[in-house]
Design goal:
The complex is a heterodimer.
Chain A: E1 5-14, E2 17-27, E3 32-36, H1 43-50, E4 58-63, E5 66-67, H2 72-77, E6 79-82, H3 94-104, H4 109-122, H5 138-150, E7 156-160, H6 168-183, E8 187-192, H7 195-201, E9 204-209, E10 212-217, H8 219-224, E11 230-236, E12 252-258, E13 261-266, H9 269-282, E14 287-293, H10 297-305, H11 309-313
Parallel strand pairs in A: 3-8, 3-9, 6-7, 7-8
Antiparallel strand pairs in A: 1-2, 1-4, 4-5, 9-10, 11-13, 11-14, 12-13
Helix pairs in contact in A: 3-4, 3-5, 4-5
Chain B: H1 2-22, H2 26-44, H3 51-67, H4 71-80, H5 83-89, H6 94-122, H7 130-151, H8 160-177, H9 189-195, H10 199-212, H11 219-249
The chains are: A alpha/beta, B mainly alpha.
Chain lengths: 329, 250
């Protein structure tokens, strides 16, 4: 296999619950491949199967040329994994965490310090190397977790929800880091529930819903599936009557409200514009703006999955880390 | 062979990490140092028995409590902080992770257990064979630390205190049936049978033999039984942790 990752009919049951349902796909070397789906869609389970943390109920994962079930140690030597929750040792310093990671990946003793220094400089945390990880900010911990996954210079990097829960600035820094790594030739497999993130970062995206891959293509390819549906974003001024009748106009297929803006999907553009003008005049409404909308990945996602984009904006409950409330199993 | 050596080096790295992180944790200090200290004081103070009589039980208790104080909490702690997931992502076999935990628990037990031996040497109690006793202590510490890691395997909790409490439920009865307070030969026959099921019995008996010159089992039996128990505990710990791992990740 020339590809970096190949999943063949990968399936995972937790008891009677089907978490990953017979998924198959390939990731080429040097590609950024994304799993896009709402929380609970099976993304984390899929990444755990691909990285050998769990064994599949059936099917197989070939990673870096090795079957993850049969030769997990060989495969794990060639990959880096950044889990959803930054899981470094809070009690150890940034430096000690990287050295420990280097030991686990079998980096030669003489190269460990140099590699740790390079990575800390790369993520901009060299000055904080002696700080305990527990004292670093969430964004810094995330960057350090990525550095720990890169300590052995893996050819494939797995990132589970890399920017989930981060502030805008930290998220942007992480995306920049991912682009830079990919630019250096690292194959990137990431999961995300942020549609925009998938759109901007990924060469190809697989949309996953309820454990199944429902679509797989380049972002532009996915968007092209909803072309042919013209949409307008329309804003009205404060004066005039109610705009409830908008959905009932001729040629209108669908209306959604995005803040103060109405997104209207239409069939015949000319017919709709005439009907809109009549509607506004008849109700004393002032049209303050009207813009044509190109189909977005969100539109494609909604069309393909039938899910509301709101589902994708729901963040997971706080991850179980540190002293948050816990329960026994 | 190279792969085994490679995995063993990773076990040592894990053990070193455990030493840095877990030795100073509150429950380890309480269960591994304070508790055996107070139990030992309660055992010694006010009793009109010679040091030679007291020392075997004291050594057994110290080695047992200290070697089992770190192990039960490591994997629950790592589950809770998600660092177990980190270890599982790395090219480290599960047995190497378990062995790393056993080694860190073993070292803690061994280091603290040196204290009563030193005490015996300073007070010139008259150890019959210091080297044999030290060797026995090494095997016993390994055996007890393997037991402690086994005790953390089920239930697969992420609450260290739960694991500590449950392991105490096993540890305390063992102390009372293992000839720590009453020599095995003075127990009724059913008591002697029950005592034979405890790994601590064999270390206490060995210590008694090397300090006061009398024992219930031949020395070879004591060594063999401690080694057999250690092998069973390590094997069982790996198998049960393997089975419960998925519950820790989900």
């Amino acid at each position: 296999m020339d590809g970096a990752i190949e999943a063949i009919n990968l399936t995972k049951y937790y008891g009677k619950i089907l978490a990953v349902d017979n998924i198959s796909f390939e990731v080429e070397r040097g590609e950024v491949f994304g799993f896009l789906g709402p929380n609970g869609a099976g993304k984390t389970t899929a990444i755990r199967l691909l990285t050998g943390q769990m064994k599949p109920s059936s099917g197989s994962a070939i990673v870096a040329g090795f079957d993850m079930t049969r030769e997990p140690i060989k495969a794990k030597r060639l990959i880096g994994v950044v889990p959803e929750v930054s899981n470094l040792y809070d009690e150890l310093s940034a430096w000690d965490n990287l050295i420990f990671a280097a030991q686990l990946y079998g980096v030669p003793r003489g190269a460990r310090g140099m590699r740790a220094k390079e990575l800390l400089e790369f993520i901009g945390l060299y000055d904080r190397r002696e700080d305990r990880v527990g004292n670093l900010s969430k964004g810094m911990r995330r960057r350090l977790t990525i550095a720990a996954a890169l300590i052995h210079e893996p050819s494939i990097l797995f990132l589970d929800e890399p920017t989930s829960g981060l502030d805008v600035e930290s998220a942007r820094a992480i995306r920049g880091l991912i682009r830079e790594l990919n630019g250096r030739g690292t194959t990137v497999f990431l999961t995300t529930h942020y549609i925009e993130e998938a759109d901007h970062l990924c060469d190809r995206i697989a949309i996953i819903d309820r454990g199944r891959i429902v679509a797989k293509d380049k972002p532009e390819g996915l968007k092209s599936r909803v072309e042919g549906r013209t949409a307008f974003d329309i804003s009205f001024g404060p004066r005039g009557g109610p705009v409830d009748g908008l959905a009932a106009l001729d040629h209108v297929k669908e209306v959604s409200k995005l803040g103060e803006v109405f997104r209207v999907y239409v069939g015949d553009v000319t017919g709709f514009l005439q009907a809109l003008a009549d509607f506004a005049r008849g109700n004393g409404l002032e049209i303050t703006s009207i813009n044509t909308v190109k189909p977005s990945l969100e539109d494609a996602f909604v069309r393909i999955t039938g899910l509301s984009p709101e589902v994708m904006r729901v963040e997971k409950e706080p991850a179980r880390r540190g002293d948050v409330g816990y329960s026994s199993h | 062979m190279i792969r085994l050596a490679e995995q063993f080096r990773r076990s040592l790295a894990i053990s070193e990490k455990n030493i840095k992180i877990y030795y100073s944790k509150g429950p380890v200090i309480v269960f591994g140092l304070l508790f055996p200290l107070f139990l030992a004081l309660a055992y010694i103070v006010g009793r009109s028995i010679s040091l030679r009589e007291v020392l075997p039980g004291l050594m057994g208790m110290t080695t047992f409590f200290t070697a089992t104080s770190v192990g039960p909490s490591i994997i629950p702690w790592e589950t809770r902080s998600k660092t177990l997931e980190r270890l599982l992502c790395c090219p480290v076999a599960l047995w190497a992770i378990i062995l790393g935990d056993v080694l860190s628990s073993f070292l803690f037990g061994l280091l603290i257990s040196i204290i009563p031996i030193t005490f015996a040497l300073i007070l010139n109690v008259g150890l019959l064979n210091f080297v044999v006793l030290l060797f026995g202590m090494i095997i016993a510490s390994m055996c007890f630390s393997a037991l402690s890691v086994l005790l953390s395997a089920y239930p697969p909790t992420d609450i260290p205190a739960t694991s500590m409490m449950l392991s105490s439920l096993v540890k305390f009865p063992l102390v009372f049936i293992s000839g720590v307070f009453v020599p095995i030969e003075q127990l009724p026959s059913w008591g002697q049978y029950v005592a034979s099921l405890s790994p601590l019995t064999y270390f206490t008996d060995l210590a008694r033999q090397l300090i006061s010159g009398r024992s219930f089992y031949p020395m070879a039996i004591n060594f063999v039984m401690m080694s057999v128990f250690a092998a069973i505990f390590i094997f069982a710990a790996i198998r049960i942790h393997e089975r419960t791992l998925i519950k820790r990740l989900t």
